[in-house]
Fold this protein.
Amino acid sequence: METVSVRGALELLDRAGRVEQRVVVGDRPLRIGRAFDNDLIVDDAHVDAHHAEVVVDENGVPTVRDLGSVNGLRKPGTRGRVDTIALDRDGSFSIGGATIRFRTPDYAPAQPLRGGGLRAHPALWAVIALVACLAATAAEAMMGSSEKFNGLQLLNVVLIPLIVILVWAALWSLVGRLLVHHARFLGHVAIVSVGIFVGSALTFVLGLAAFSLSLDTFAGWITSLCAFISMAIVFSGHLRLATRLRARGALVAGVCAALLIAGSFRVTHMVGAQRFSPAPRSTVTLAPPSWRLRSPETTDAFYAKTQTLVDELRDDKPLKTSQK
Amino acid sequence: MLLRSVSERLFAVLAVVFSSHVAAADSGSAQAVFASVKDQVVQVRLIDQAGNAKTALGSGFVVSDDGRIVSNYHVVSGLVNHPERFRAEYLDQNGKTGKLELLDIDVVHDLALLRADGFPAAHFEIRSELPAMGERLYSMGNPYDLGLTIVEGNYNGLLQKSLYERIHFTGSINHGMSGGPSLDTNARVIGVNVASAGNQVSFLVPAKYVTALMERKHDKALDAAQFNATIAQQLTENQQRYVAELLSKDFARTDLGDYSVPGTLADYINCWGRTDSEPRELYRSVSYHCSTDENLFLSDSLSSGSIRYSHVLYSTEALSPLHFFHLMQVMSGSGAHSFGGTEEAMSNFHCDSDFVAHDGQTSKVTFCLRRYQQFDGLYDLFQQSLALRGDRELLVSTLALTGVSAENARAFARKFQESITWKP
């Protein structure tokens, strides 16, 4: 009877770092690729039918070797392709969009996943984020209504954002399915929910701060800042999940996209403020009186300051700005 | 038979009464007045030069033997605001038309003095003294382009609660009659048709302002810049008159909850109160609104010379302080009041906002001004003051003054703010 020497195992990882497939590495060469006749099948459009093979060299070290593939073999976190990579203890490599790692036999595969329990349960994450988001939007609607909310109205303010979130997440899932062959619907739901929640909460908190410090003239900028942060979270998260971008790349791309959109809204708003309006456009923030931190001015000081407005108006021909 | 006899007698009595009434009405009757002056009343038409078609209609009447015609400023304001777009014409009772030239205006009393070359010499006589209460008057003009019309009514005195002097005429003045004369039974002008509140409640500009306008020097027609300077001067003098008077004395106060706030500041300011406490609403509100009833017409989109202010005390028991003030913030942001006007006529509002303390009361005050582009030294003011005291109570006071100098705007706003006090 032939004895098989076990050198370790190859593990194909998903985006979250979880093991999708595992295959034992012995003395026999292992072939990796998209075709069914491989030992480790990688379902990725950027992986060749027979992409690479793992062989054990004369020193007994498993080595992965490129079989002349289109996209080559890479060390994780690098761009340049290499012909071979020696798989020593905890070694890993990338082909296409997939990451594969090598584990020696003494490696304990049952060690807990990073991030603890919640990370292991994306559905729980998604539900928590979604509930927080819907609670925030419902609270915002209720706090801005002068009438008591009945059950139907409450359902209405929850149902519409819920549908929008689910449709949005489904669209990103579709993108992910096309680009990296993974829908990750719950992940997208969690991301958009977190983005909306953070945006709403920040707007509320910074609005209170604007009142406390009498920074009403910056209210427009605060709104734009919150929208930017919210969009940066959403776009970065979606790009990370639905493309091959790594964390830093997704963050940069997400921030750029958010800057572009929030910036264009801000510019549109500022251009709009230059246009004529027959009504005052000043924004007033309000909070309970005890939240006021800034000392009040005397009427002498305040109305002396209004002379500045008169000077601005006299000097400004034709007159343009609407808000100081 | 008996019935026929009674009816014949009744008919005879009625015939006597009716014939005596007609005989009494002959002197100074509508027929007589109309016949005597119909050639001195014209239709005033504003013509759009591009389309060569009428764009506004009013009435006018001849006041001098050199063809001067009086009408309302609001009828011919297009000649001042867009001289390149409009021209004015008259149409007399014989169907004759001719060009009208704008000589002078009085925007405060809504009067315009025009000249028609080659107009017949006959003209109206102006009656300087006011009629007696109840005296019969006739108003003439061209309602709805239906032709010259005479309307009978009565003099009911000068408006008591008005910033601008107006005669209360009980008779129907309709669209198109603006600028026409209102006459006594001797066909003397006692006023100029200017406005109507419907149901035979109409208003006239007293004839003394026609006399004052005619007495001014009019060597030649003014250009647009000169008209603007004239309007600016008239508006400035007008606002100085009433604002200075208001500022010279303490503001009358009224109580609103635990606050003392500016109340009816003058006879010509009309104030109304209202309490809203709907079961569905999460708050109660007690409001007090005041405004002048009239304002000065400057253009189709802009009026001036008005005072408006309001105080609304909001309170709640159902809401937390954070919820209540957030709701107040949303509400205060949704009801921005439009002041009218166009980009050519007005600047945008410039605003400043801060916490302001007076007499132990801290408020959040937003002070906004915008400038009249064509009338130097005149501004519109908007001020909103949010009195911050209780956790479940908010007093929102707003003030809007239109067509005032910057100094008067600032002084009035300050006095208004200092008159909002808390009285525990």
About this structure: Chain B touches chain A through 64 residues (CB under 8 Å). Chain B has seven helices and 25 strands. The first helix of chain B runs from residue 2 to 25.
